[in-house]
């Protein structure tokens, strides 16, 4: 894997030309602070590009141009390095994306436990009295219980007379590392409606998005 930030100017320019456009395209998806980027990267990148362009043109290169080029890189590089650190730290940037940008991935990189971008698909088993079994699995495969890096599934649930407007109304919570996740009830709750939704939680306790709210009748 190539060095993230080469020492030579040509290598530095090539790397920043790869990383910054890709970041700008995926800024929202990767949860990169656009305000910080606009203040620290955009103007300094523009100044570096202009200065380096003058420097590599033999018709405009002078000792003063060389000095300005060095000044612009010295101003730009610390913030560019900070951007690279942000990309490595972001759980939304995949290892493949980092590799394509030439960013070295540390051995303990978060990619081993990414924050889920999907929610569990679920099937409900009501064959047992006073019990709901929620069989959850990866949306991409019914035969795979959990996506890579996910520790298990959390369910939020509540017995309600009418469908809830949001997950905030589901105040009971349960968690299971293996499917199925079982909810048990007593005889007085039979025939009532349980509303529930699920989300993935990775091995660092970071949670993905909630599924839609589903319902089942307690057998």
Question: Can you describe this structure?
Answer:
- The chain is an alpha+beta fold.
- The chain is built from five helices and seven strands, in the order H-H-H-H-H-E-E-E-E-E-E-E.
- It has helices spanning 9-25, 34-40, 42-56, 63-89, 95-100; strands at 121-125, 131-137, 150-159, 172-176, 181-184, 193-202, 214-217.
- Strands 4-3-6-7 form a four-stranded antiparallel beta sheet, with no helix packed on it. Strands 1-2-5 form a three-stranded antiparallel beta sheet, with no helix packed on it.
- A hairpin with a 5-residue loop joins strand 1 (121-125) and strand 2.
- Helix 1 crosses helix 4 and helix 3 packs across helix 4 (63-89).
- The longest helix has 27 residues, at 63-89.
- The relative contact order is 0.13.
- The model has no long low-confidence stretch (mean pLDDT 90).
Topology:
Blueprint (H helix, E strand, L loop, with lengths): L8 H17 L8 H7 L1 H15 L6 H27 L5 H6 L20 E5 L5 E7 L12 E10 L12 E5 L4 E4 L8 E10 L11 E4 L2
Antiparallel strand pairs: 1-2, 2-5, 3-4, 3-6, 6-7
